[in-house]
């Protein structure tokens, strides 16, 4: 793949522009090419009928990286736990990694 194509790849990111809470809806809207308010309405309706919208939004917030970052919140937490230098065996004891 040429360098030109690598820079034009669409990436799903939480955006600063149009952000109301965490930028999930505006990021999805920008990625898909529709108005972020349509995403917000769909999530509001899903929230009213069973609460699914809140869960979907929370998952998006955790898994979508911010536009200024290359990693999501979950990826940051995983890398921090791996870099602590300890591991937990099945007994729950923390042991130094060798």
Descriptors:
5 helices, 98 residues, two-stranded antiparallel sheet
Could you outline the blueprint of secondary structure elements for this entry?
Blueprint: H1 3-7, H2 24-32, H3 36-48, H4 52-63, H5 73-82, E1 86-88, E2 94-96
Antiparallel strand pairs: 1-2
Biased composition (Polar residues): 79-90
Protein name: Phage shock protein C (PspC) family protein
Keywords: Cell membrane, Membrane, Transmembrane, Transmembrane helix
What does this structure look like?
- With 98 residues, the protein is mainly alpha-helical.
- It has a domain at 22-74.
- Helix content is 50%, strand content 6%.
- It has five helices and two strands.
- The chain has helices at 3-7, 24-32, 36-48, 52-63, 73-82; strands at 86-88, 94-96.
- Strands 1-2 form a two-stranded antiparallel sheet.
- A hairpin with a 5-residue loop joins strand 1 and strand 2 (94-96).
- Helix 2 (24-32) crosses helix 3 and helix 3 (36-48) packs across helix 4.
- The model has no long low-confidence stretch (mean pLDDT 79).
Order of helices and strands: HHHHHEE
Classification by helices and strands: mainly alpha
Biggest sheet statistics: 2 strands, antiparallel
The outline comes out as flat
Helix content: 40-55%
Radius of gyration over C-alpha positions, nearest whole angstrom: 18 Å
> Strand percentage, roughly?
5-15%
Q: Tell me the number of strands.
A: 2
Q: Which strand order spans the largest sheet, edge to edge or round the barrel?
A: 1-2
What is the tally of helical segments?
Answer: 5
Spans of at least 5 consecutive residues with low confidence: none
| Span between termini | 40 Å
- What's the rounded overall pLDDT mean? 79
């Amino acid at each position: 793949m040429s360098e030109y194509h690598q820079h034009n790849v669409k990436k799903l990111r939480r955006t600063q522009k149009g952000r109301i809470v965490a930028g999930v809806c505006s990021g999805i809207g920008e990625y898909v090419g529709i108005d972020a308010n349509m995403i917000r309405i769909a999530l509001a309706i899903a929230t009213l009928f069973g609460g699914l919208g809140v869960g979907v939004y929370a998952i998006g917030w955790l898994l979508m990286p911010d536009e200024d970052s290359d990693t999501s919140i979950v990826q940051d937490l995983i890398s921090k736990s791996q870099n602590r230098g300890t591991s937990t065996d099945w007994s729950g004891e923390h042991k130094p990694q060798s």
